Amino acid sequence: MSSTRRYKRLLRDDFDGAWKNMLCEKRFAAFAAFFLPSVYDQIDWVRGVEFLEQELRAITRKTKHSHRAVDRLVKVWLLNGMERWVLVHIEIQSYEDQTFPFRMFQYYFRSRDLFVGHSIACLAILGDDNQNWKPDRYVDSLWDTGVECTYRVVKLKEFESRLEELERSSNPFARFALAHLKT
Q1: Per-residue confidence at 66, pLDDT binned at 50, 70, 90?
Q2: Angle at CA of residue 43, ends 31 and 80, nearest 5°
Q3: In the beta sheet, which residues pair with residue 151?
Q4: CA-CA-CA-CA dihedral for 72, 24, 136, 155, to nearest 10
Q5: How far apart are CA 181 and CA 183, in angstroms?
Q6: How far, in Å, CA of 162 to CA of 75, rounded?
Q7: What DSSP letter does each residue of 83-146 carry, written as one string?
Q8: pTM for this model (two decimals)
Q9: How is residue 65 annotated by DSSP?
């Protein structure tokens, strides 16, 4: 592996680790307020959230490539009293990855398989530089048989026009997105 590719991989791993460390139970409300504002108002924050790390391992253990991992699996309660599970998959990458939509589908399917009867929502946060690359679905079909899996996508590059707003924000994820954009 060339030294440039090795450096880019280490940098990408550093970004992933920083995002994983930032997204914890005590900061999940701030995360949802920043990245999922339409969902934030539906969550019963009084009941709290539960990170399901053991269950998460059951999903990631089945992957062929150990570096691929769903970052967080979070159980939340809705204001209407219903229990919901939220799968948050953060993928910070500096290049287009044509396998990404399939991986999102894999994590969704494995979560559905593991938690039968629970709804799952998926979110991908993309930190690459290509404004035009914003995969939001996986589609596969053959002979009138197929599957389509859609998921939410936040493209950090789209925040570049809002740098001053990010700088003024008290939300730690606004500051974190700003730091990501500046590096």
Answers
A1: very low
A2: 170
A3: none
A4: -150
A5: 6
A6: 31
A7: EEEEEE-----SS--TTHHHHHHHHHHHHHHHTTT--EEEEEEE--S-TT----EEEEEETTEE
A8: 0.79
A9: S
Q: Are 52 and 73 in contact (CB under 8 A)?
A: yes
118 pLDDT above the threshold of 50: yes
Residue 77 CB contacts under 8 Å (≥ 6 apart), including other chains: 43, 44, 47, 83, 84
Question: Is 82 in contact with 64 (CB distance < 8 Å)?
Answer: no
Paired sense of beta strands 120-126 and 145-150, if any: unpaired
Average pLDDT over residues 105-126: 84
Tens digits of residue pLDDT in 1-30: 555 555 455 555 566 677 777 888 889 999
